[in-house]
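Progress note, sequence design subtask.
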């Protein structure tokens, strides 16, 4: 399959990442079906598209025609069969739990046309942990976007040992079509490039806060003012979701049994309190 043959993209998950990946693809001219088990998430994603696009038009960032086209290209459904049944390319952006992803990929293998590419937007999990749930491992790879996906340019494409060169190339071509800078990794590594670097920063920031050396606010001020990051590590955690940080840490700890992979006491406390960041209106900071 060539990029010209990719007409319909299915995005699985309408959460933090999925709703913006879906809209990016729709704006790039693809027919997109976004699916989620939660009707509420789908309604929120549709509402986002309906408010975001006119805002872009009034800001002069999109023409009315581009916005109309984007909106007409995207649809939302709770039915995986309907979303993926005629998809040429699937981007899975479901919850960061390996068993959920493996089950989804097994279902996708049954539902999608045999030539369809199945990519995971997992933040850390390499696709070889998932590919063997399908009978088409050569068509499985990582395609990892960053939050907010409509804004962030980088996409990490990871070619696992099972991934064909055609699949990796087509995924890179898709990045280009979506106006993204794809970076192709030919060796799998947990967390890829960016999240490994980010994890090292977050690990140290949480250690300093847990030790009482500085508060999360003070650490954020230090990082934004000294390193020029747009957000400090704690504001970024609120943005990407403390629940996500907790699940990723627990999943990794279960696998490695290495204490340094366990979510820090601060993350465990915030997770238990239901203070997951922006999505719950409270995390390290409070939101309207
Ligand atoms: N969704 C879509 N667009 C958004 C947005 C959102 N949530 N927030 C801001 N934007 C857009 C705005 O529309 C604006 O676009 P234009 O300039 O084209 O008009 C632009 O971003 C700048 O917005 P603002 O001026 O309102 O705010 P800002 O300058 O503070 O930028 C930000 C907001 C882009 C989020 C910026 O703070 C930033 O880059 N933060 C760091 C984000 C980051 O590190 N992301 C990676 C996270 S790690 C990750 O994603 C890993 C993973 O696996 C999940």
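Output:
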């Amino acid at each position: 399959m060539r990029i010209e043959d990719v007409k319909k993209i299915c995005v699985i998950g309408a959460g933090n990442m999925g709703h913006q990946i879906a809209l990016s693809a729709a704006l790039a001219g693809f027919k997109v079906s976004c699916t989620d088990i939660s009707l509420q998430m789908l309604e929120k994603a549709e509402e986002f598209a309906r408010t975001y696009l006119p805002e872009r038009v009034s800001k002069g960032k999109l023409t009315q025609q581009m916005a109309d086209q984007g909106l007409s290209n995207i649809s939302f459904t709770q039915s995986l069969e309907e979303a993926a049944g005629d998809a040429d390319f699937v981007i899975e952006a479901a919850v960061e739990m390996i068993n959920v992803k493996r089950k989804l990929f097994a279902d996708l293998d049954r539902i999608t046309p045999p030539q369809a590419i199945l990519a995971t937007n997992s933040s850390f999990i390499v696709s070889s942990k998932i590919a063997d749930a399908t009978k088409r491992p050569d068509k499985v790879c990582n395609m990892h976007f960053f939050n907010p996906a409509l804004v962030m340019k980088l996409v990490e494409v990871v070619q696992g040992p099972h991934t064909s060169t055609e699949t990796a190339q087509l995924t890179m071509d898709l990045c280009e079509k979506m106006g993204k800078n794809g970076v192709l990794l030919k060796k799998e590594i947990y967390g890829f490039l960016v999240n490994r670097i980010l994890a090292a920063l977050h690990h140290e920031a949480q250690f300093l806060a847990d030790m009482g050396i500085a508060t999360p606010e003070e650490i954020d001020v230090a990082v934004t003012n000294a390193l020029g990051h747009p957000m400090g590590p704690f504001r970024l955690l609120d943005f990407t979701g403390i629940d996500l940080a907790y699940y990723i840490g627990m999943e990794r700890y279960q696998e490695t049994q290495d204490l340094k992979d366990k979510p820090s006491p601060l993350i465990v406390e915030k997770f238990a309190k239901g203070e997951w960041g922006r999505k719950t209106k409270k995390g390290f900071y409070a939101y309207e």
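The chain has two domains: 8-185, 194-278. Work on this subtask will continue into the next period as scheduled.
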